[in-house]
Design brief:
Oligomer: single chain
Radius of gyration: 25 Å
Strand order of the largest sheet: 1-14-13-7-8
Strand content: 25-35%
Structural class: alpha+beta
Helix content: 25-40%
Number of helices: 14
Distance between the termini: 42 Å
Length: 588
């Protein structure tokens, strides 16, 4: 078995070869060409009363590399006379050294953390989180219970997950036998927009402040006209410190988590005194217009923008090998999940086609908590080729792979890659595969199929479409003009019990606005009937598609592209898959 040192060296070698052969990936912009940048501010309050006045947190910011990092030394080392803060400080310092030692046009946080970990020699252990801005995405590596939240229009739209062996026992980097190494890290990307705010912190922040409190702070400071990173970092740190001293009254994120784990109220009520580190990054354009910092939009709708294309994954490289392992720490198996999907679907082929099956296809695997859909590209019919056969074979291959490999944890990107390789018929199609992992949807998407996420009847997220041009989506196929899975969007988005996922081909999304779906969903909210909802949405899409007047999502998009007389709907095959997110006991 490859040891960690060899693993890191191989990753570095692979990374060097990748950068040498492909200087710039399509979705990874260099520091000099990025359209966005981060302005930083940070604030640190060590815990009072410690024998070590420096505390046990550490952090760094690098504007040149558009990268931030923080670490929280594990305090239990103090019982052995070891200052875990020294470990955290050396780890963060080594990250900076690695950044500065190499002339990096693109920063890969996982590789930075691995090399810094290898160079950290002192005793102790710590959590770690490194975030870099690459193009229009945050590239993140995280170990333990430090992390970040992403705010848009002063509303929290994303929170990184925590990794814990048990309550108050986070994953932690260190050389001791009971510690972890960087291979357990969560590594992901999430898209950002100009105007977004990143609030990163150690658990001294997140154990003592709710997201709603941070939202209020951002709005108040914004209304005062002084919403700047350094000001916000200090205010949040001060508020967290104040909350941490509230021992007897009120509920904090920490006490709430303790209660959930069964600790009695008198013991775990109020805040948690701890070192508090806060780093605030404001996402701003590198050039062009200047954002008005004191003016926050009064809009409560948000659509998190995610990477346009995920990096190409070679199934033989170390990252993919790690992803293929049966169990990864921090990823729950099917039997351990706190949430499950109840899934239903409806399919209406386009009327009048010579092929009564239409060109859409989909699959559902309740056992694997996974579903997928594909839309065969109709232009193949001009060549006498049924693209529906390609879509059906692609989806059938996905289902075969799921059951053949008896996957405990499903990685949609790898499923799609293998299914694509095994699909031999002529034609092409879009593809979207969604699996529920822990409390997140793990998604891979190619083209203009996709999904919306609804919470309490309101649409809170819509996946983006991939098009070469209007009405010419990215499409999987073996023909020279087709795409392959390397162009896919691959991302994770958190969900809660009660959420509804509405996935579909463009026959749904070209004909039904999100606002129309919200009206329908609110009429049956509180019921668990995904099959019925899928049928109602499909029938509404069919009705709208036959209209020759009025505005539809399709006609609206056509008008924006300069096409005239494109009123009404768009007749097409219509596939709808609805998934209701529920605790497992609700599905019994």
């Amino acid at each position: 078995m490859m040891n960690l040192s060899d693993h890191i060296k191989k990753r570095m070698k692979d990374n060097f070869l990748m950068k040498r052969n492909m200087p710039i990936q399509r979705d990874m912009k260099t520091l000099n060409t990025s359209s966005l940048m981060m302005n930083f501010g940070s604030f640190y309050i060590p815990k009072m009363g410690k024998s070590n006045p420096m505390g046990e947190d550490a952090h760094f910011t690098s504007k040149d590399h558009q990268t931030i990092g923080l670490a929280d030394g594990i305090s239990s080392w103090a019982k052995k006379g070891i200052d875990a803060g020294e470990y955290a400080r050396q780890l963060m310092n080594n990250c900076l050294v690695v950044l500065d030692a190499k002339d990096r046009e693109i920063v890969y946080p996982q590789l930075i953390l691995e090399e810094a970990y290898l160079n950290t020699k002192v005793d102790g252990s710590s959590t770690a989180c490194i975030i870099t801005l690459t193009g229009e995405s945050l590239n993140v590596v995280n170990v333990g219970d430090s992390g970040f939240m992403l705010f848009r229009n002063a509303i929290m739209i994303y929170k990184s997950s925590t990794q814990q062996h048990g309550f108050n026992y986070p994953y932690q980097l260190g050389k001791s036998n009971h510690c972890d190494d960087p291979r357990v890290a969560e590594e992901f990307m999430i898209g950002v927009r100009a105007g977004d705010w990143v609030v990163a912190g150690t658990n001294g922040l997140f154990d003592n402040m709710y997201a709603s409190e941070m939202e209020v702070a951002m709005k108040v400071i914004g209304e005062a006209g002084c919403l700047e990173p350094q000001v916000l970092a200090q205010v949040l740190a001060d508020l967290a410190f104040e909350n941490s001293l509230d021992y007897t009254q009120g509920i904090s994120p920490y006490s709430q988590a303790a209660l959930k784990e069964g600790y009695p109220i008198p013991i775990k009520c109020g805040g948690k005194p701890d070192d508090i580190t806060v780093i605030v990054a404001h996402i701003v354009p590198t050039q062009g217009h200047t954002l008005v910092l004191g003016n926050i939009e009064n809009s409560y709708s948000f659509q998190p923008y995610l990477p346009k294309k995920s990096p190409t994954v070679n199934v033989m490289d170390p990252i993919a090998t790690k992803r293929c392992k049966p169990i990864k720490k921090g990823m729950k198996t099917l039997n351990e999940r706190s949430l499950m999907m109840n899934i239903g679907s409806s399919y209406i082929p386009k009327k009048g086609k010579s092929n009564p099956k239409g060109e859409d296809a989909h699959f559902i695997s309740k056992h694997h908590q996974t579903f997928g859909l594909a839309d065969g590209v109709s232009s193949w019919a001009k060549k006498g080729i049924d693209a529906g056969e390609y879509a059906r074979q692609l989806m059938d291959n996905c289902l075969t792979i799921l059951y053949k490999k008896d996957m405990e944890i499903v990685y949609p990107q790898l499923v799609l890659q293998e299914a694509y390789s095994n699909t031999e018929v002529n034609g092409s199609s879009t593809a979207c595969i969604i699996t529920l992992t822990d409390e997140s949807l793990n998604v891979v998407n190619v083209g203009d199929s996709g999904f919306m996420l609804f919470r309490k009847g309101n649409m809170i997220y819509k996946s983006s479409t991939q098009q070469h041009r209007f009405n010419s989506p990215y499409q999987l196929g073996k023909n020279s003009h087709c795409d392959d899975p390397s162009v896919a969007e691959e991302f994770i988005i958190g969900v809660r019990g009660g959420d509804l996922v509405v996935a579909g081909t463009d026959g749904l999304f070209d004909n039904v606005f999100a606002s129309e779906m919200e009206v329908i969903i609110k009429q049956i909210i509180g019921t668990d009937q995904p099959e019925l909802l899928a049928q109602i949405l499909a029938e509404q899409a069919l009705e709208n598609s036959l209209k020759t007047e009025g505005v539809s999502p399709y006609s609206q998009a056509a008008s924006m592209e300069g096409y005239r007389r494109r009123s009404g709907g768009k007749p097409d095959d219509i596939t709808v898959v609805v998934a209701h997110i529920l605790p497992p006991n609700h599905l019994l």
